[in-house]
Amino acid sequence: MTHGPEPLAALVAQLRAERDGLRTAMRSRAIIEQAKGVLMARERITADEAFARLRHVSQRTNVRLVEVAARTVARAAPPPTVGRLRAAAARSSSPAENGTATAPPDRAVAGADRLAAHTRHLLTVTRVDAAAGYDDLVDALAEPGPEWPDPGAVVLALAEPDGALRVVAARGVPAELASQWARIPPQLDTPLTDAARGRTAILLPDRERVRQAYPRLLELNERLAACVALPLTRHGTLLGVVGLTWRTAVDLDHARVSYLMAGADAVARGVARLAPGTGTGGASPDWIRAMLDASVVPAAALRPRRSGTGLADFEFAWCNDLASRCADRHGVRLADTTLLTALPDTGPRELFPLCRDVLADGEPRSLAEVRLPAARTGGPDGRYEVRAARLGDLVLMSWREAPEGRPDAVRGAAGTDRFGAGGRPSGRRPAPGRPS
């Protein structure tokens, strides 16, 4: 028997078709089961009767069964909503008070179009939830529908330990450009990095807004007319960013932004499922504890706390025994507390700016001398050298007693030394849009 290239190619095509069919069935099953539940509750019928009714409508209207199911669920489930949309003050579609933006009233999606948009959204979420890889997540968002027009490009980037973004999937991006931007340093001024840095939605509905906020983008893509960048978060942890661009202006009304945000939430769930360690540099809590316990100096891992206006505080997520004993000597308890609560004197003045800046741009920093006032120590002032570095969405802080007679280091505006490779001053400009 001769096995030439043609039979082999036919076999590969058959296996790919079967694989795609299985993926389609997996995506469809969830929404069909939801539709059956809606009909069973509303009509008081059995599961088999509900499925038969869905199939009958599909055959009669010549519409795919999964779309009939999605439309059934869409009629019963409320559409996604967002109240006030946090967006970068200078980069949003509608700047408002306190650096936030409120989406304009719903104009474009109404009536029958609203049902179609919600149906398409449910299908998109179903595809995202069944995604087998990052490419599937991007493909789900790249499919046009009533909730938004056909995107010119979709990019998915994951957060790296040093604050950089690693592009893991893209559609509509030239191969050469995708290769050049495979890893985006946190210091660059781009919609993706700004969305990640500030945990805010970047909404640019037309070419003029893009030109005002990111003129460099138009040099890279002359056909760019609108873009959004949405942070992907789960349980307070930044996982990455998803960005969409269009070749025509997009009316980012309340309904469309709601669907975009809901789509980003679904993608965040998908990323968390596909890469459980994302957001902590791939490190598990057990690994972080082991690393802290192996340290020969007091050390702690701090997790950012955010409010509606941005970064508010840092909580002590983990600390080693040396850190706990050192804090106990100064009458400070690190367990179940935050940086500003535990250290109301030096926390706001020196340590919070240190951690904030490290989290913003990923640059390691140090303080040559931090003093704990005698009022807190019950004796002489405590003097410590403090170092901080970023690990995913955490800040690792270590400290030791400052040597006697050491001259104060040259400090920046935040009271910190800035170090690059080899301990030299880095000389890099502060990252734009830094959270406050």
From TrEMBL:
Domain ANTAR as annotated: residue spans: 12-73
Keyword entries, A-Z: Kinase, Transcription, Transcription regulation, Transferase
Gene3D superfamilies: 3.30.450.40, Winged helix-like DNA-binding domain superfamily/Winged helix DNA-binding domain
Stretches the record annotates as Disordered: 81-106, 402-436
Pfam families attached to this UniProt entry: ANTAR, GAF
Entry GO MF terms: kinase activity; RNA binding
Compositionally biased residues, Low complexity: 81-96
Protein name: ANTAR domain-containing protein
Species in which this protein is naturally found: Polymorphospora rubra
